[in-house]
Amino acid sequence: RMETDCNPMELPGNTGFEEDSDYRDFEGTDVKDMRLEAEAVVNDVLFAVSNMFVSKTLPCAEDVAYINVETRERNRYCLELTEAGLRVVAYDFDQTDDRLQTPYHETVYSLLDSLSPAYREVFGNAILQRLEALKKESQS
């Protein structure tokens, strides 16, 4: 089983806006923090799932955003993104189920790794292809 908590292609998630109080003065900027983070999460792994997008139905806030994902196995999930990480909050798009007590994952990679064997395979193959390309570059 491949551990994917440490992704070599991962960009730092902290944009620095959180600490910079000057950005708080712009109207609506605080509401976009987690939405921007959620968009980055989607862009990072969209290639390895069937469908993934930030929910437009569920409310985004400074501290929470919701992401809909459909795995290659055709399973649908609604994910909650907070400072604590990501977790499944429902087994369909744009839903939350307060009775679900699913664990938080530090990264989208470990969450998808636990939900989707097909994701694991596609993601692993992408890393292998990238390593092969780097190997060829270093040999030339």
Give a quick rundown of the structure.
With 140 residues, the chain is of the alpha+beta class. Helices cover 34% and strands 16% of the residues. The protein has one domain: Hypothetical protein (hspc210) (copper amine oxidase-like fold), CATH 3.30.2280.10.
Any overview of this molecule?
Residues 1-24 are annotated as: Disordered. The protein is α+β, with helices and mostly antiparallel strands and 140 residues long. The protein has a single domain (34-138), classed as 2-Layer Sandwich (copper amine oxidase-like fold). The protein is built from three helices and four strands, in the order αββββαα. The protein has a four-stranded antiparallel β-sheet, covered by helices on one side. Strand 2 and strand 3 form a beta hairpin. The protein is elongated. The model is unreliable at 1-31 (pLDDT under 50).
Considering the chains and any ligands shown, give keywords for the structure.
single chain; 140 residues; alpha+beta; four-stranded antiparallel sheet; 34% helix; disordered N terminus; kinase regulator activity
What is the string of SSEs from the N terminus onward?
A: HEEEEHH
Under the CATH scheme, which architecture would be assigned? 2-Layer Sandwich
Beta-strand residue fraction = 15-25%
Give the domain tally.
Answer: 1
Largest sheet: 4 strands, antiparallel
Give the C-alpha Rg: 16 Å
Lateral strand order in the biggest sheet: 1-2-3-4
> Class in CATH?
Alpha Beta
**Which runs of at least 5 residues are low in confidence (pLDDT < 50)?**
1-31
End-to-end Cα distance, whole Å, is 33 Å
